[in-house]
Design a protein that fits this description.
The protein is α/β, with parallel strands linked by helices and 335 residues long. Helix 2 crosses helix 3. The chain has a domain of 138 residues: Rossmann fold (3-Layer(aba) Sandwich), CATH 3.40.50. The protein has a seven-stranded mixed sheet, with helices on both faces. It has ten helices and 14 strands.
């Protein structure tokens, strides 16, 4: 039996490979959509001995199919944002404790004790719809924060400005999580000089403003908030884990998550094969495959529509989207 203790206790490559294979066999047997997909690929399940050999399910299946293990009833269904007429992804989550454990542990790993951090959220596009996994996470972080200033701010920018000034005076560790266009709107109208503030953008203009390359966007935000760098979150509806960037667009992920890069012209070929070959191309641009072992009851092996690079130290960059890919909630910063 695969437990949360097994997955969130992963500490090395050997552990990751072992539990990735365990989850692969579990999902190949019990997830009808994934089972049919790997059957159509004619994958010999028994011959798969390393996580790089596992087939990755195209993320588009979350738009048209119920990607969930048989016999599991959703405790919640997260859905992606989208414009009118767009088919949104749906992620059925039978056990929310897997999601909570994942984001709480990852947040603590990257940012420290949540009780000692003020969490301010500027997420109007997410608050104004139902089914956002990001809002579920931020709700939990705000409630877990022991700071009275922790709160959501919709369009009340003056209130947010006053809260930030108070937190700066108190010397309180503060994280401002915001959708990109809202952070830009705020920074233009309420410039700050708050060097210790952590500004975390979640990506996306949501059709509100013109898209900007990352360097330009982060430069504007750095000047507007008076901070040395802009943090980012890499997450999506189809995942229960997130990657975080401390700046420069370089993301890191928790130990139960892995990023691989596939060939954009041959989706079954990886450009980085880990320990399986000495011919590794860690900085070549390709499409991002994600292994998220917290996706125990859906699919842990997802071929996204994001383009990126993987670096030798395990960090990765998100460089944009495939042409004609639906615009959704994770990072959309095209270079």
């Amino acid at each position: 039996m695969i437990t949360k203790e097994h997955i969130f206790g992963i500490h090395n490559e050997e552990d990751f490979n072992h539990w990735a294979l365990e989850i692969f066999h579990f999902q190949a047997k019990n997830n009808p959509v994934y089972q049919q997909y790997i059957h159509l690929l004619r994958t010999d399940i028994l011959s798969v001995s390393h996580y790089t050999q596992i087939p990755f399910l195209p993320i588009q299946f979350f738009k048209t199919q119920d990607v969930v293990v048989s016999g599991q009833k959703p405790q919640i269904t997260f859905s992606s944002s989208g414009t009118t007429g767009m088919i949104n992804s749906k992620h059925h989550v039978p056990d929310l404790t897997w999601y909570a454990e994942s984001f709480r542990r990852a947040f603590h790993h990257f940012y420290g004790n949540i009780e000692e951090i003020a969490i301010l959220a500027l997420l109007p596009s997410y608050l104004e719809r139902d089914g956002s996994s990001l809002i579920y996470m931020v709700d939990d972080l705000i409630k877990s924060s022991n700071q009275p200033e922790s709160n959501y701010f919709l369009y009340n920018h003056e209130d947010l400005y006053q809260s930030l000034l108070q937190l700066k005076d108190k010397g309180m560790k503060t994280i401002l999580i915001g959708v990109t266009y809202a952070l830009l709107d705020f920074a233009e109208n309420y410039p700050l000089d708050f060097p210790d503030l952590i500004v975390m953008e979640t990506g996306g203009m949501k059709g509100k403003r013109k898209e900007m390359v990352r360097e330009e966007l982060h430069s504007v935000l750095q000047k507007g908030f008076g901070v040395p760098s802009i943090h980012s979150e890499y997450g999506m509806t189809e995942l229960l884990s997130q990657g975080y960037s401390y700046g420069e667009g370089l993301f890191h992920h928790p130990s139960w998550m892995k990023i691989l890069i596939r060939d954009t012209n041959d989706p079954l070929t990886l450009l980085n094969n880990g320990s399986q070959t000495s011919e590794v191309f860690p900085t070549k641009t390709g499409a991002i495959n994600v292994i998220d072992l917290a996706n125990h009851y859906s699919c842990s092996f997802i071929a996204t529509q994001d383009l990126g690079k993987l670096h030798p130290d395990g960090s990765f960059e998100v460089l944009g989207r495939f042409d004609n890919a639906d615009i959704r909630g994770c990072n959309l910063l095209v270079q």
